[in-house]
Design brief:
Residues 124-165 are annotated as: Disordered. This protein is an alpha+beta fold. It has a single domain, classed as Hotdog Thioesterase (Thiol Ester Dehydrase, Chain A, Roll), CATH 3.10.129.10. Helix content is 33%, strand content 30%. The protein has four helices and five strands. It has a five-stranded antiparallel sheet. Strand 4 (93-103) and strand 5 (110-123) form a beta hairpin. The longest helix has 25 residues, at 140-164. The protein is globular. The protein starts with a helix and ends with a helix.
């Protein structure tokens, strides 16, 4: 059994940090040789779920994904790099920021391709929503990431509302 100190350390933003990579292969591309949006969304969901589960130590299911703009393509042969971390919690929910960038594996050049915010719900052994611990950001770097994600999400939601108005 883990000691109480280790369990407390699991409730930090840093403990939830997850990075995944996917090599863009022909089965993941459209007829232009670019990553399918659905494939990217799938990877974002997986990366976000891992961050949520690392944080909550529970099975987590996707409750929502905020607006997604694909601002740059990821081309055949490039690497999709996904990074996710928990930036907020509710009673049974976990909010996760997921950033995606494209990397040219030959040059190391990278570019931002999309960001979204996902909400997951933690489940107990019976599949019922269960409480999650409060998020801790014990370092200035973690607190800065948390504040940045909160502000970016607020701005993104405002922009979507403006577009719909």
């Amino acid at each position: 059994m883990r000691d109480e100190r280790a369990a407390a350390d699991d409730t930090t933003l840093a403990a939830s940090y997850t990075e995944m990579t996917e090599l863009i292969l022909p089965n993941d591309t459209n007829n232009l040789g670019r990553a399918l949006g659905g494939a990217v969304l799938h990877w974002m969901d997986i990366c976000g779920a891992i961050a949520a589960m690392r944080f909550s130590r529970r099975q987590c299911v996707t409750a929502s994904m905020d607006h997604v703009d694909f601002i740059a393509p990821i081309d055949l042969g490039e690497v999709a790099v996904l990074e996710a971390y928990v930036f907020n919690t509710g009673r049974t929910s976990v909010d996760v920021k997921v950033d995606v960038r494209a990397e040219n594996p030959k040059t190391g050049e990278e570019r931002r391709t999309t960001t979204s915010f996902l909400t997951f719900v933690a489940l107990d052994e019976e599949g019922t929503p269960t409480p999650v611990p409060p998020l801790e950001s014990p370092t200035p770097e973690e607190e800065a990431l948390r504040a940045e994600a909160t502000e970016e999400r607020r701005e993104q939601l405002e922009n979507v509302a403006d577009r719909l108005a």
